[in-house]
Amino acid sequence: MRIYRIALELVASVAKLSRKVQEHDPDLARQMRRAMVSIPLNMQEGLYSRGGNRVARFHDAMGSAKETMASLDVSVAAEYLPPESVIDDLERIDHIVATLWKMSGPRR
Fold this sequence. Notes:
Strand content: under 5%
CATH class: Mainly Alpha
Structural class: mainly alpha
Oligomer: single chain
Order of helices and strands: HHHH
CATH architecture: Up-down Bundle
CATH superfamily: 23S rRNA-intervening sequence
Distance between the termini: 19 Å
């Protein structure tokens, strides 16, 4: 699944950014790391689930993606990270959420 590889790219990138955030706000950095790792974990669990469990895991992954997005936005707003450092990750998150949204819909 291609979207899983994109989620892993996101993890690698956000992990680096979280180390910078850690210098200013350790709690935000921890929350950022928890949210980012939850994305691929829930995606994989959802792929091998059925029915409502599948949808629930994809929705959990989407929620974690949006939480990761918020943690990046907060880090920029607090001036822990420069805005240009998060652009690619925000685009990855949008792509991940859109794909998971499609995958969680009814089967045809």
